[in-house]
Amino acid sequence: MTKPPRSKPLLRDTEAPIRSKPRRQRNPAQPQLLFDPMPDRVEPALAELKAHPPNGDQWSWELKWDGYRLAVHIEPTGVRILTRGGHDWTHRFPDIAEAARALGPATMIIDGEAVVLDEQGRPDFGLLQKSLGASGKAAGRRASDAILYAFDLIYLDGHDLRSVEYRSRRHLLEDTLNGKDGAIRLSETIDADANVLLEHVSGLGLEGIVGKHLDQPYRSGRTGDWVKVKCVESEAFMVVGYEPSTPSPGGFASLVLAAYRGDQLVHVGNVGTGFKESEMIKLRNTLDKLRWKRKQPPVPFVGKSDIVWVEPTLIAEIEFRAWTGDGKLRHASYKGLRERQDNADVYKLD
């Protein structure tokens, strides 16, 4: 007797990321059809880090926003907000989702960055992270005060715009948003010399600037079509331990950080500033649940023996000024935790 075929699961894993697929071809049976199928997801274009802005008038400059990269998909059937890693976070940005619905009945994919602004109107990653909640139990928290600064348009009303040069995509984006000032806003381009702009941005305490080549199409990954120049270094590092604190037994003196060299994690220093007391206690509780159970630490280490090692699970965004001669972070300050669903890149050493 032959076995009956296995039935397919009825439920879909909602935590699984949506994958980017190759651009679908038009139906050969309808060669004159004018519309392009809307992609389920587009792998985002990323900016290459540069020490100085490139020369030439073929670049468009804007602020570098300090938040979470999002793609907003607007369709007749509804709105989806996807993270850089392809996870559906529509429920976590309700105001952005509502503003996206108001842009209908057009169909589009908007590329942008979700931020929370401080009292001076500057993006503050710590405020965004606090609004969303840390990784783990708070993963269902909503950032109701987040704003999406839109900087590109990937798809519009049946037309896949990835093969269109940036200057034209930008014009379409400006026409689409048309001065809107709600939870979705236009990331303004700034007509100024990039070096002068960088100096002013640094004086305002902002992270840096991003340049986009006006004549290039939308290409996923780091292709050099987009560049970023930072005033202050800010990168993601793996938390591999903590140094206990005698004055604050419920907290810690510092976090032990690591970066990748090839496939191996290596120690790049500690961070002991930037924490609020309540935040430190919550983080300590999380770390104690992740204690390292092996004899050898997760990274090669020469130093204090009282370090409490933890499983390399948490990713922290760290602001710092420079590197020391022996490869450690100088003047490091904690900004907040990154979520794995955000697909944050842990820093890679040369």
UniProtKB/TrEMBL annotation:
Annotated keywords: Ligase, Plasmid
Q: Where is this region: Disordered?
A: 1-38
Q: Where is the signal peptide, in residue numbers?
A: none
Q: Give GO terms: molecular function aspect only.
A: ligase activity
Q: Which domain of life is it from?
A: Bacteria
ATP-dependent DNA ligase family profile domain location: 139-230
Q: What is its EC number?
A: 6.5.1.1
Reactions this protein catalyses: ATP + (deoxyribonucleotide)n-3'-hydroxyl + 5'-phospho-(deoxyribonucleotide)m = (deoxyribonucleotide)n+m + AMP + diphosphate
Report the InterPro entries cross-referenced here.
Answer: ATP-dep_DNA_ligase, DNA_ligase_ATP-dep_C, DNA_ligase_ATP-dep_cent, LigD_ligase_dom, NA-bd_OB-fold
Q: What class of enzyme is it?
A: ligase
Family stated for the protein in its record: Belongs to the ATP-dependent DNA ligase family.
Official protein name in the record: DNA ligase (ATP)
At the highest ranks, the source species' classification is: Bacteria, Pseudomonadati, Pseudomonadota, Alphaproteobacteria, Hyphomicrobiales
